[in-house]
Amino acid sequence: MNPLPEDMESALTGSQSSRASLRDVHSINPTQLMARIESYEGREKKGISDVRRTFCLFVTFDLLFVTLLWIIELNVNGGIENTLEKEVVQYDYYSSYFDIFLLAVFRFKVLILAYAVCRLRHWWAVALTTAVTSAFLLVKVILSKLFSQGAFGYVLPIISFILAWIETWFLDFKVLPQEAEEENRLRIVQDASERAALIPAGLSDGQFYSPPESEAGSEEEAEEKQDSEKALLDL
């Protein structure tokens, strides 16, 4: 049997590849795509992501923890009322802890306003609070007399410094990258759903066919038999 012509082979190959590509497209489940899109849209409707909510909780913990340490310091150094009057009313930059508490309030207000209320997606707000905190604490530690007032002279500045930098790290390496990744996933799923919607749902592999090889081969065999019979008759 003679081999098939090259154009017929290329046609068969093209039809097989088209069937394979359509099979790959139909393997995408539209129901799964819609469910995934709805889950991402549900996260957007909540208004704030889980990782951003965790960041805001940590900012609140920063304020409450520094406030607790300051109240303990007030109580240890002669009672809350007397020490509070001394540190607030008679404020002295070189010996008072009140400004460290105000620094925690400053961080809380700026970060909650920027990342919870305004839902900012940039690091400039946390960079501002961390820079102000670091500069203020460094100057205060160098110029003040906190170290001569016991353990709180070390604890409050160090705790405030560490918490400010943890907030910067958490936002820059956890919150912003994770939210950007979720947006990219949503965009990919939406593009895939749009491409799947363009493919007609009624198409099947049976609608794409090519002439079977057996028909072409049988015609050539019949012609060869007729030629051989003619040759025998001539003899």
Question: Quick recap of the structure?
Answer:
The protein has 8 helices and no strands. It is mainly α and 235 residues long.
List the helices and strands and how they pair.
Blueprint: H1 6-26, H2 30-45, H3 50-76, H4 80-89, H5 98-117, H6 124-143, H7 152-198, H8 213-234
Keywords: Membrane, Transmembrane, Transmembrane helix
Region (Disordered): 1-22, 200-235
Domain MENTAL: 48-218
Structural description of this entry:
One of its GO terms (cellular component) is late endosome membrane. Residues 1-22, 200-235 are annotated as: Disordered. It is found in: Late endosome membrane. It is a multi-pass membrane protein. Residues 225-235 have a biased composition (Basic and acidic residues). The protein is an all-alpha fold and 235 residues long. It has a domain at 50-197. The protein contains eight helices and no strands. It has helices at residues 6-26, 30-45, 50-76, 80-89, 98-117, 124-143, 152-198, 213-234. α2 packs antiparallel against α7 (152-198), α3 crosses α4 (80-89) and α5 (98-117) packs parallel to α7 (152-198). Residues 1-8, 10-15, 20-26 and 202-206 have low confidence and may be disordered.
